[in-house]
Amino acid sequence: MPSDRSPDDVPGRTPHDVPGRTPYDASAGIVVTGTGVISPAGLGAARLWEAMAAGKAFFDTGDHDGPAPALPWPTAAVDTSEIGWPQGTVWANAGKYANQSARWAVAVAGQALEQAGITGDTEDVRGGTVMAVGSSGDELSEVMPRLAARFRDDPRPLAKFLHDEVPDYSYIRGIPSQLGQFVSLASGFRGSNVAAYGESAAGGTGALALAVRLLEDGELDRVLVVGVAGALSMTSLAAFDRHEAFGTRATVGAGPFDTGRAGTLPGQGAAAVLLERTDRARGVPLARFLGCEVLAARDPESASRYAVDAVLADAAPPDAWWAHGAGSRTLDAVEAHTVTARAGTLPVTGSKGTIGNAFECAALLDTALVVESLARRELPPVGLLDRPDPALGALDPVLGGPRPLGDGTTVLLTAFNQGRGAAAAGAALIAAVAGTDGTRTDGTGTGEADGEAPA
């Protein structure tokens, strides 16, 4: 059987030079070649971006600015009528076992793959999937919020608590993702199928960071990162609300970074981001993915500081900022002070004043929106923001309409878990590509087929 090792794969030379891996050219980097979005604005990143630009918000308030009759909090929900399912015998059979989360995952994966020109008709052992999942999904159901609520007043160390209270601790630590099996079927990617749980992965940045490591380590050439945040159960909502109260108004003046902000508003959605090694990319680069880190610490200030420092350490200062910006009294202040202290005053926007917090996939939605913004060379405004809070320091929020972006823009993205005591924070750095005419910046067209050496 022919070997897929390159002549440079000499054991002992570097950590990357082992059988089954291809050498990673750090100077080539990683690019985004496809995105997919399901949001309350509809299908695709473009529709959500345009809704933000138009100042729309999608919260069900029962025809007033307070909570909808069925819930104590305004919530932005997804209209499922547009979400389809692939055709064919295989998919007809798979559909028998697919719940709503699986259908959303396949739909956003399909958008990203189509944008990259990948059909999924053939197996690709150099491609893999990383799923961003959490307690709102079916894989852990009600377990995580129940444990989170109980652990607040429990004297046992976390490891002891989990060992005693969870029938199979290894299940929480990490197993192949059930949702990922459907995404693997859609993509043909067979190189990995793992999950990063939202409770420790800061809105999907943990999944992005894991994907980056798989690419940089030479394990894979492309990774499809997918996250799904369906409707939260009342148990989950109550657990989150106990940790930090949700907002009860969805009106202008109650949005992120506003003087009158009074809590995060829940949302729903799904997103996919296809990352590829530039020297092995099959799709046309839409943006350069310069780095991603997620870190847990004893408090959100430390976690945020460490994550932002990690992605900015070897990079030029960013030109714009896509904030977590969920309307939290605590977290809005934490990220504002963290970023302004390190990057100065930047144009800043965020999506949660438009569609709420989609929890485990919120940062994936924001990543897709950053890519869309770089392509349009504009940042959309912050939803529901009226009077920026002067206590947050030197903020420059986008208000009223889109803000132009210059050539070669680099955007800093920040993310948190939900709640004022959020122990994990994430950050990513995403930059525009040199050309916008569909031509690869290295001049090789749309990328090489699997197994072919780059030109």
Question: Any overview of this molecule?
Answer:
The chain is 29% helix and 18% strand. It has 13 helices and 16 strands. The strands form 3 sheets. Strands 1, 2, 5, 6, 7, 8, 9, 10, 11, 13, 15 and 16 form a 12-stranded mixed β-sheet that branches. The protein has a two-stranded antiparallel ribbon with strand order 3-4. The longest helix is centred in the N-terminal third of the chain and has 17 residues, at 100-116.
Question: In terms of structural class, how would the helical and strand content be classed?
Answer: alpha/beta
In whole angstroms, how far apart are the ends? Answer: 25 Å
Q: Which H/E pattern describes the elements?
A: EEHEEHHEHHHHEHEHEEHEHEHHEEEEE
**Helical percent range?**
25-40%
Strand content: 15-25%
Shape: globular
Radius of gyration, taken over Cα atoms and rounded to an integer in Å: 21 Å
Q: What count of helical segments does DSSP give?
A: 13
Q: Give the tally of β-strands.
A: 16
- The whole-number mean of residue pLDDT values reads 85
In the predicted model, the low-confidence regions spanning at least 5 consecutive residues are 1-18, 168-175, 436-455
Main sheet properties: 12 strands, mixed
Could you name the key traits of this structure?
alpha/beta; globular; 12-stranded mixed beta sheet; 455 residues; 13 helices; two-stranded antiparallel ribbon; disordered C terminus; disordered N terminus; 18% strand
